[in-house]
Amino acid sequence: MTTAASPRAADLRAGDTSARVGAPTTKAGKLGVWVDERTGLAKGASVMLKKVFPDHWSFMLGEVAMYSMIICLLTGVFLTFWFVPSMGQIPYEGSYLPLKGITMSEAYSSTLAISFDVRGGLLIRQIHHWAALMFVVSLSVHMFRVFFTGAFRKPREINWVIGTILSMLALIEGFAGYSLPDDLLSGTGIRAAEGFMRSIPVVGSFISYIVFGGAFPGEAIIPRLYSVHILLLPAILVGLFAAHLILVMVHKHTQYPGPGRTNDNVVGFPLMPVYTAKAGGFFFLVFGVLTLISALVTINPIWAYGPYDPSPVTAGSQPDWYMGFADGALRLLPGWLEFEIFGFTLSLNVFLGAILLIPVMYTITGAYPFIERWITGDTREHHLLDRPRNAPTRTALGVAAITAYLVLFFAAGNDIMAIRLQMSINDITEAFRVLFFVAPVLAFWVTKRICLSLQRHDREMVLHGRESGTLVRTAEGRYYEVHEDLDPYTQWKLVSFESPAPLAIGSGKDANGVSSKAAKKERRRAKLSRFFFKDRVEPVTPAELAAAHHHGEHEAIEAPAAAPAAIKRAKQD
Amino acid sequence: MSDKGLPATFENPGLPPHVHRAADDDPRAAKRAERQVAGLFTLSILGTLGFIVSYFAVSNSTEVFVPFIGKTNLLNILLGVCLAVALLGIGFGAVHWAKTLMSDEEVVEERHTIGSSDEARAKAAGILAAGAEEAQLKRRPILKATGATALGLFALPLGVQLAGSMGNPTKALEESKQTIWDVPKGGKPIRLVRDVERTPIKASDVSIGAVFHVLPETIKDSHHVLEDKAKAAVLLMRLHPSAFATDDLGTKAKSWGYEGIVAYSKICTHVGCPVGLYEQQTHHLLCPCHQSTFDVTRDCNVIFGPAKRPLPQLKITIDDEGYLVAPQGFVEPVGPSYWERKK
Q1: What is the pLDDT of residue A17?
Q2: Which of B75, B226, B303 would best serve as a mutation to test chain A binding (most A beta carbons within 10 A)?
Q3: Contact flag B340-A344 (C-beta cutoff 8 Å)
Q4: What angle do CA A316, A322, A326 make, to 5 degrees?
């Protein structure tokens, strides 16, 4: 360092130091010092860079969502350079011959230009669309992972709510986006959306008028959807996403139960270097796969649909997949839900499916952690995940909800099914109507039974070990199979869970025998607790294992008889 | 169950012993991994170069046949595949590097309760209380009241600007009930013209079983073609007069038509999609969006699906030259239901 010896050192005020001992000499090091002197980043960075993340494939799902969103933002910026958000009608003069001379909106014409005249424009457009589809898929599956492992429990309830809002906004953002090209298919979607708005009681037609700036289609909707799609919603999405990530940092990532993992630690690899390479590399993998798909598989070929015109329509009109469930709900809701009261028309057949369904679904989703916490009365922090089988009722509820969603989703394909399967569309629709109510109940029951069976299987495994396949003949001529004990690490994974007992159901009366509101509430809570926990399998205890070992000395090929006793069914009187 | 001094639950056995990877112990394996990672990065570089070469060298309009995919744009394939190689090369390279050469020994980080300590909470609450005290919030309620009101109201101008600039919805409601089929008092009946060609239709042109997509002749003078079309689109069919139901509905449908030719609004009464699919044999109209099914022989009443109301019928007849005309507009609003539809 030359600074210390420079003549200017004399200009320093008392107490100032000119250079620190061990100051970096490399260029990167000097740049680091320059930045740190102006930001103080080094303090936080050293904590951040050493932050430990646990490893599991299911933790990548949220990453896929994050990267898909970033890819959407990136490719979206490109698209804005060429897309013209205008419904002004012009004759098409571009290079796609089948549409030459046809009158269309500037939005549609510029989307054709992106697809045919801008070199590489089609690729960017397709990456944008595929990334948007991938975004919704991955964030949904990420939500499933979080739900089924109980990762939404304290202290992560707020992040669950943020994620729920993100998920809902992603649907709206997607709808706004695929409506922009103003092609026949998306225009039909906007036409339907106008019908949805009209179904809102009292204010529906005003809302439609305000949104469309007059009569449908008008010239306002595409420019307005454009600012919603590229400015308003992305700003909210990015803001909430940043909050989502910050909370992940604050909470530290959850981890699956396993040897060495406790509720008070996090076991994994540090951000620097392992996760920088792995997660950074994974961004390129997601981007690369989306690019490959976009190179090989056409998505939304708007040139085949033609410009929007309110009169023609194509058979098999369907929205993008994530709006399918709402479309399916509309197909299933019967017409008799529309009726008149005091001369006013109430179209519940539309309103329930098109307007209410999405907010109601997301409200229930967002409220779930609070409901479960109230029922279980569990106020502890949870950083160790549940294996889905170890929370049978929650898992079953989740599968039931997904089943109801899937029924609606597949109902949106009732016309395609009728054609492909040569079946009556009426029968298919009626079947879906029944399934919507029956299938979730069945799914609940089956899932819960499967979870309990898996838990019993875990018990068996711990108590009797692995079947070694080695048959031994005793001196008396009896045969038995040797079972190998589990190693303590594998065993720990199978025994380290909680199996809470249901709360006792009270009489709904307080200590003085007077029925009170509070006591009744407790009674309701205990009933729900019973619903949650009445069927349960307890983890093996060391004493049980010791007993099983003792028993095992005489173990014959016949199945051990101890199993049924292990399953406790809470009896309430 | 007797416990014999056994603990109630199992003990966490702690982290399992670390298993070394090939590259941890064998320098040759490490070298191999290094070569693989470098190879993947090189592949990425080649992909980038390939992208740039394709961008400048390949025509935008060349089509190629790709097995399993069909005829497709060559430039899109080349750019996409090259970019994918460039990205996947980096991705696989980095992940492979992390998995083979970077440490795979697990690190344990302790967690701490998320919430702050009681002292920290008390301190924060104290600062808030002291701040409120210092601002004299309690002593000067008028500041509190006016300040809160001002804050509550300041968004109002923005709201007023937005809502006020939206136009006059009451007028729009009236307009939404009109279509360009409406004949002014004493005006001439409006001819039906073919959608797209816009040529008038003679009754004799419509054979039994035929379907025409129809607009009013007045569409040519329209300044808002799409808006007018969105309400005025009509589907015209000819049925054998005996095909109509013999009840009131069938009789009305037939009497509003001309020799079995009937015209109905094409805008679905569910959410407004064009009801574009006509089943000639069953005389059913099907909406492709949500499969509402309307029975033409019974005045387009709903026989299946989510729609409630029948499609509004357009009364038609012929003029002196034998062309189909509509002497009056629709007698009810077309399209989806809304709150004040009946008012």
Answers
A1: 58
A2: B226
A3: yes
A4: 70
Unique residue bearing structure tokens 């089948």? A98
Q: How confident is the model at residue A14 (pLDDT cuts 50, 70, 90)?
A: low
Answer yes or no: is pLDDT of A63 > 60: yes
DSSP A36-95: HHHH-HHHHHHHHHT-EE---GGGHHHHHHHHHHHHHHHHHHHHHHH------EEE--SS
Is residue A74's pLDDT more than 70?
Answer: yes
Q: Which of A336, A160, A399, A48 is nearest to B302 (CA)?
A: A336
**Distance between the two ends of chain B, CA-based, in angstroms?**
78
B306/A338 Cα distance (integer angstroms): 9
DSSP letters of B160-212? HHHHHTT--HHHHHHHHT--TTPPPTTPPPEEEEETTT--B-BGGG--TT-EE
Residue A353 CA to residue A433 CA, distance in Å, equals 13
Which residue carries 């933002």 as its tokens?
Answer: A73
The H or E element that residue B7 is part of is: none
pLDDT of residue A281: 97
In angstroms, the CA A283 to CA A272 distance is 16
Segment B172-221, tens digit of pLDDT: 778 888 999 999 888 899 999 998 899 999 999 999 999 999 999 999 99
Distance from CA of A33 to the nearest CA of B (A): 27
Q: Are the C-beta atoms of A95 and B61 separated by less than 8 Å? A: yes
pLDDT for position B162: 85
Contact yes or no for B204/B258 (Cβ under 8 A): no
Q: How far is CA B104 from CA A79, A94, A136, A267, B41, in A?
A: 42, 56, 32, 12, 22
SS3 label, residue A555: coil
**In sequence order, which ranges of B238-300 are alpha helices (DSSP H)?**
248-255
B91 to A283: CB separation less than 8 angstroms, yes or no: yes
Q: May I ask the CATH architecture of the domain A52-310+360-386?
A: Up-down Bundle (1.20)
Domain boundaries, chain B: 22-100, 177-326
Give B99's contacts in chain A (Cβ within 8 Å): 278
Interface of A with B in 187-226 (CB under 8 A): 188, 191-192, 194-196, 198-206, 208-210, 213-218
| Per-residue tokens: B220 | 């040519």
**What is the tens place of the pLDDT at every residue in B162-178?**
888 877 777 777 888 89
Count of alpha carbons within 13 Å of B198, Cβ hemisphere only?
7
Residues of chain A with CATH 1.20.810.10: 52-310+360-386
What does the angle CA B56 – CA B60 – CA B65 come to, to the nearest 5 degrees? Answer: 115
Establish if A262 touches chain B: CB-CB under 8 angstroms: yes
Please state, in angstroms and rounded to a whole number, the distance separating the CA atoms of residues B71 and B81: 16
Residue recorded with tokens 């002593």: B139
Q: For residue B207, give both structure tokens.
A: 């054979």
If one compares B342 and A260, the residue with the highest pLDDT of the two is A260
Query: Tokens standing for A527?
Result: 């009933």
Q: According to the model, what pLDDT value does residue B47 have?
A: 98
User: pLDDT tens, A207-219?
Assistant: 898 899 888 999 9
Which are the contacts of A67, defined by CB distance < 8 A and separation ≥ 6?
Answer: A282, A283, A286, A287
Q: Are A37 and A104 in contact (CB under 8 A)?
A: no
Rounded to whole angstroms, the Cα distance separating A279 from A358 reads 32
Q: Are B41 and B88 in contact (CB under 8 A)?
A: no
Name the residue with tokens 């702050």.
B116
Half-sphere exposure of B230 (CA within 13 A, CB side): 25
- The CATH number of the structural domain formed by B177-326 is 2.102.10.10
**One-letter amino acid of A229:** H
Q: What is the pLDDT of residue A19?
A: 59
Cβ atoms B90, A281 nearer than 8 A: yes
